[in-house]
């Protein structure tokens, strides 16, 4: 029988505080820091020990996340080069030619956004796809709100919640759940992602079709205004063409290598990161000559500023929830006898409370949604991974599937599909009201959550 100490209950108290604060759309960093201080003081027995616990947690979390921070920063830096050279326009041009009508435009924009998000992250992909495909899609008959829904659901929804190429989201979830690499979470997420993707995008497509019939005259004026707008001029040269060809081919070869050589986790990250950095370096030299020696510094600085901006709060949150895992708790407290608080609660629950698969699935879904309300797609991941590990100790469930379900819920909510404060990038580039976009997305996403949860229960 697991014995729960006062430190266990103090940790649980701060977990609940963090969830409440996130539900109120506030950043939970101060509760996490206070939680680390109080729990550290109780475990180490001194204020010095409490302060070292806070710092150690950041180092442990930073070590766990550093590879993902680097790869995202390098990808963003490369996207800056592609945009400045006009290579992004050349990459997207073939997709633009496919949009012969509104129906085709919805799916072309969506899949273009999905692919771009997998390789370049949703925020850079929003600028890339929006700037190039948005005017073409509207001229093809798709209303601006339809373009925004397609970009948002495919990019910040499917793309960010699966993250199969860069593997940032599944790596964080897997670490918190106790997996050595993201492979199990990625595999478990595939049927859930297919379910969530199909239900949400088909439902959204039907919503857009209804809107086109209801507001036909307004959308006609929208198309006429877009058609009258002058096309943007691009400074295209041979370097632009070279980057437009080499970049997608190189990343496609990386994906092929990942599949054939079964590269996961750090190996896959290393391959993608090195590819992005080499293309960035060669592209800077070819485009700017000797000035490229300085230009690459600007791109890398922009990329790492983006990466640190995204992950700074996640490191603090992750450090707090990593106290819940035994192996990481040992490093945080610098005690070989330390146990994971959440793991202990899992064993305690299994011995005292009757649980079933439906209950734990709903808890995982609800946790991801509530914590995701703060507008950060990655903030919920340390918690949902820890929750999956906790319930796996309490009941015979597939931990990977449970973790993947929580990841879906957290990213679809916090990544920005149903909360207005997370929809601003897509809303800004398409010129739609973020509140209206959230309202249009709400029913499709909720239907997706219901269907995905049912599938997860069956698979667990």
From TrEMBL:
Q: Does the keyword Transport apply?
A: no
Protein's recorded name: Transporter
Which residue spans traverse the membrane? 6-24, 36-59, 65-83, 104-121, 127-151, 185-208, 238-261, 268-288, 303-323, 409-430, 442-459
| Transmembrane helix among keywords | yes
Give the keywords, sorted.
Membrane, Transmembrane, Transmembrane helix
Report the superkingdom from the record. Answer: Bacteria
């Amino acid at each position: 029988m697991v014995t729960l100490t006062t430190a266990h209950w103090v940790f649980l108290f701060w977990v609940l505080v963090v969830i409440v604060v996130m539900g109120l759309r506030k950043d939970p960093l101060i509760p996490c820091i206070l939680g680390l201080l109080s729990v550290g003081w109780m475990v180490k027995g001194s204020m010095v020990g409490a302060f070292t616990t806070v710092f150690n947690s950041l180092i442990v979390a930073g070590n766990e996340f550093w590879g993902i921070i680097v790869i995202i920063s390098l990808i963003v830096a490369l996207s800056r080069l592609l945009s400045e050279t006009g290579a992004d326009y050349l990459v997207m041009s073939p997709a633009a030619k496919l949009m012969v009508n509104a129906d085709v435009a919805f799916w072309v924009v969506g899949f273009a956004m999905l692919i771009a998000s997998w390789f370049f992250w949703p925020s850079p992909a929003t600028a890339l796809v929006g700037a190039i495909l948005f005017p073409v899609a509207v001229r093809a008959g798709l209303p601006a709100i339809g373009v925004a829904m397609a970009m948002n659901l495919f990019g910040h929804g499917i793309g960010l919640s699966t993250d199969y190429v860069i593997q940032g989201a599944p790596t964080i979830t897997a670490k918190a759940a106790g997996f050595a690499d993201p492979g199990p979470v990625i595999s478990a997420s595939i049927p859930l992602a297919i379910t969530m993707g199909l239900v949400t995008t088909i439902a959204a497509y039907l919503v857009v079709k209804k809107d086109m019939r209801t507001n036909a005259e307004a959308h006609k004026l929208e198309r006429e205004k877009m058609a009258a707008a002058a096309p943007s001029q691009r400074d295209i040269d041979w370097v632009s063409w070279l980057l437009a060809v080499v970049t997608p081919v190189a990343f496609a070869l990386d994906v092929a290598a990942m599949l054939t050589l079964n590269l996961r986790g750090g190996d896959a990250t290393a391959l993608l990161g090195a590819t992005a950095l080499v293309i960035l370096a060669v592209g800077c030299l070819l485009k700017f000559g000797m000035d490229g020696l300085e230009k690459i510094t600007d791109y890398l600085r922009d990329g790492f500023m983006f990466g640190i901006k995204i992950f700074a709060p996640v490191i603090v949150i992750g450090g707090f929830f990593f106290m819940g895992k035994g192996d990481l708790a040992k490093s945080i407290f610098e005690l070989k006898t330390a146990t994971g608080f959440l793991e202990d609660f899992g064993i305690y629950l299994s011995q005292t409370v009757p649980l079933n698969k439906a209950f734990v699935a709903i808890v995982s879904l609800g946790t991801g949604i509530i914590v995701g309300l703060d507008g950060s797609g990655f903030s919920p991941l340390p918690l949902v991974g820890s929750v999956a590990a906790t319930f796996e100790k309490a009941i015979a469930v597939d931990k990977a599937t449970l973790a993947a379900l929580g990841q879906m819920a957290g990213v679809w909510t916090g990544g920005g599909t149903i909360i207005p404060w997370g929809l601003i990038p897509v809303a800004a580039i398409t010129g739609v009201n973020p509140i209206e976009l959230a309202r249009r997305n709400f029913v499709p996403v909720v239907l997706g959550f219901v269907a995905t949860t049912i599938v997860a229960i069956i698979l667990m």
